[in-house]
Design goal:
Length: 243
């Protein structure tokens, strides 16, 4: 049975699953089906729905009916479809909180060392002798870190006088991260080889991660996505029997 026509090409019902697999869309379909199964019993109150609409409009910079109509046209979406999108998002967030809120503190502590942020000064070059010379200039206070970074550093930090961050520990080179975590603030570390570069670094500030609202949302989403990926992985191999 033909279920879709695309530029004169007829797509039969038995072709749908192979096409989804070929275009790498089958995992996303499975993902969405799993989500819908899990959140189907979540109830959204009128107050939560009103707040959800307000947040949605704010996020998409919709402040008038004309802007809403324009947005719907751009997305090729009806108001009913938009309402279902908002409702689904609200139920997903409520599901995450109901399922993983009791694991938040433990998960946060397990992730904290990667979530802490640092601000540090960096000079990186490829000439070992020059690196030693710059290090001694810094130790002898002949020039500032900012001056030398701007003049000699060969990375993007030369445009910021050596200052990098704040960045999460988990997002930077593991060797560099370990050096920073073991260094007291304001101490200039001797030149070290990291990959192709020889670096001179100084920790400016360590900013501990906090369990604020944005962090809670992030951690809940991480736990949800980890669980969901496991569910998809378990479901996806079975689909190959249909292809």
């Amino acid at each position: 049975m033909t279920v879709l026509q695309v530029r004169g090409q007829s797509i039969e019902s038995h072709q749908i699953v192979p096409l989804l697999a070929n275009y790498q869309l089958l995992p996303q379909l499975i993902r969405d089906l799993i989500i819908d199964q899990e959140i189907k019993d979540i109830i959204i109150t009128p107050e939560e729905q009103e707040s959800g609409y307000k947040n949605f409009y704010a996020q998409n910079q919709i402040s008038s009916d004309e802007q809403l109509v324009s947005w719907l046209e751009q997305k090729q979406m009806s108001r009913a479809q938009m309402g279902r999108l908002i409702d689904r998002s609200l139920r997903m967030e409520k599901y995450k909180l109901a399922t993983w809120s009791n694991k938040l503190e433990t998960y946060f502590l397990s992730r904290k060392s990667q979530l802490d942020r640092v601000i540090y000064s960096l000079i990186r070059i490829k000439d070992g002798n020059m690196a030693q010379e710059l290090y001694f200039r810094l130790k002898d206070e002949e020039q500032t870190f900012a001056e030398l970074a701007a003049q000699y550093s060969q990375g993007a930090e030369s445009q910021t006088q050596g200052i990098t961050g704040p960045v999460e520990i988990g997002s930077i080179n593991p060797t560099l991260a370990q050096l920073l975590l073991n260094s007291p603030p304001a101490q200039i570390l001797p030149p070290r080889q990291i990959g192709e570069w020889i670096v001179i670094i100084r920790l400016e500030k360590l900013i501990p991660a906090q369990m604020d609202q944005s962090m809670i949302q992030r951690l809940l989403t991480e736990m949800f996505n980890s669980w969901l990926q496991t569910e998809v992985n378990q479901s996806y191999p079975n689909q190959e029997l249909l292809i």
